[in-house]
Amino acid sequence: MSPTVLADPDALIGEREMSKLKWRCRRGLLENDLFIDRFFRRYSGSLTNRQADALGVLMDLSDNELLDLHLDRKNISQVQPRLDYEDVHVVLSMLKEKP
User: Fold this and answer.
1) What distances in angstroms separate CA 18 from CA 53, 65, 66, 69, one per listed residue?
2) pLDDT of the residue at 18
3) Residue 27 in contact with residue 36, Cβ under 8 Å?
4) pLDDT value for 1
5) What is the pTM of this model?
6) Ranges 1-10, 13-22, 85-94: which has the least confidence
7) In the chain, which end has fewer C-beta atoms inside a 10 angstrom radius, N or C?
8) If DSSP codes are grouped into helix, strand and coil, which group holds residue 12?
9) Residue 39: its pLDDT value, please?
């Protein structure tokens, strides 16, 4: 999934879009699911279209690549250089926030 041009990228996503995004974010590794679950508990009420799009882009990564990013074993440019842009960095930092 690549970034899309949104009518209002800073508008909050709707309930239906949130449901679809949560479904799309289900992962095969428990560790990734824990990071993602914490992310949704924190941000589901304030997630914008821009952030949802960046999260969707991160979900195109393999489970191991995503975990490497969570654990700072690799950075975005090492995993997937085409994802090295601001929105992805913002969402990744939101995913990494400590409880």
Assistant:
1) 11, 24, 20, 23
2) 96
3) yes
4) 41
5) 0.88
6) 1-10
7) C
8) strand
9) 97
The string of pLDDT tens digits covering residues 34-62 is 999 999 999 999 999 999 999 999 999 99
Tell me how crowded residue 59 is: count the other CB atoms within 10 A of its CB.
Answer: 16
Task: Taking the CA atoms of 93, 70, 73 and 80 in sequence, report the sign of the dihedral they define.
Answer: negative
Residue (of 41, 87, 79) closest to 60 by Cα position: 79
Please name the amino acid found at residue 91.
V
Separation of CA 23 from chain center:
13
Residues 6+ apart with CB under 8 A from 69: 58, 61, 75, 76, 79, 92
Superfamily of the domain at 15-96: Flavinator of succinate dehydrogenase (1.10.150.250)
Query: How high is the pLDDT of residue 25?
Result: 96
Q: Which tokens in the block code for residue 23?
A: 């479904």
Of 41, 45, 46, the residue nearest 95 (C-alpha) = 41
Q: How confident is the model at residue 98 (pLDDT cuts 50, 70, 90)?
A: confident
